[in-house]
Design a protein that fits this description.
The protein has helices at about 10-25, 40-50, 85-90, 110-120, 150-155, 180-190, 205-215, 225-235, 245-265; strands at about 30-35, 55-60, 80, 95-100, 105, 125-130, 130-140, 145-150, 165-175, 215-220, 220-225. The protein has about 260 residues and is α/β, with parallel strands linked by helices. The chain has a single domain (about 30-65, about 110-265), classed as FAD/NAD(P)-binding domain (3-Layer(bba) Sandwich). The strands form 2 sheets. Strands 1, 2, 6, 7, 8, 9, 10 and 11 form an 8-stranded mixed sheet that branches. Strands 3-5-4 form a 3-stranded antiparallel sheet. Helix 2 (about 40-50) packs parallel to helix 4 (about 110-120) and helix 7 (about 205-215) packs parallel to helix 9 (about 245-265). Bound molecules: ligand 48F.
Amino acid sequence: MEGKIKPVDETLITRAIIKKAAEDWIEFSDCDAVVVGAGPAGLTASIYLARSGLKTLLLERRLSFGGGIGGGGMSLHKIVVESPTDDILREFGCKLEMVEDGVYTVDAAAMMAKLAAGAVDAGVKIILGVSVDDLVFRDSPLRIVGVVIQWSSVTMAGLHVDPLPIKSKAVIDCTGHDAEVLSVASRKLHELKMSIPGEKSMWASLGEKLIVENTGEVCLGLYVAGMAVAALHQTPRMGPLFGGMLLSGKKVAELVAKKVKVHKR
Ligand code: 48F
């Protein structure tokens, strides 16, 4: 039986969108964790943060999530993961194909969709089309207490529009190869004495190991995960091998969950 489509007045469309979006922005103007960048590291981090009960906002500059997943390897629609990260992907319902013992391929589109659905289901608020262009800080001791945000469209148009701040107990840079949040911190907060030398050339396995090892807190309130770790510590890139991104995201979420819970007491 064909249903009759309900007529909707144009004013209602506008009011519904403005009211509901404003409610979200008010709710998430003060968070437990802000994750910047919805690539593999940011999606994974946000899932585990939300699962541990933290109010988690994931901000992504583009109008889509997945970061570098979608491009697979040189635009071929597969990426490679190694054990033990196959278990993380299985947990989110990804189908893996074994290449050899402990090495698997996964379809890029499936991985993007499953990680994003995992984040939404865990309670992460994902907002697309928003860029983080600065940090909010306090001194004595120096600490990061939030991010400064702008519509990506405004940034792309080169308009002079003042941004808005979002407060957060933890800010996690998951912006990938350019480590954009850390780069702002190194440029503007000289007290941190931080520089971003950029990643080294490729050595896949060593790169994976060092990313996970160096994932963590950069200064009070500011954390790094994923390829941004390689940019900070000048460790090797690994191309379309993604296990390290997932483990790094999971590790940073566990570190933040411990710290933020301690603050709450
Ligand atoms: O680049 P991206 O996928 O980083 P990742 O999670 O994973 C890296 C892999 O994709 C791959 C690799 C694996 O071996 O080498 O490259 O570390 O995702 C980063 C996301 O952050 C967004 C960007 O659009 C992308 O989706 N992003 C970057 N800068 C900003 C941002 C910003 N200033 N504000 C908001 N989002």
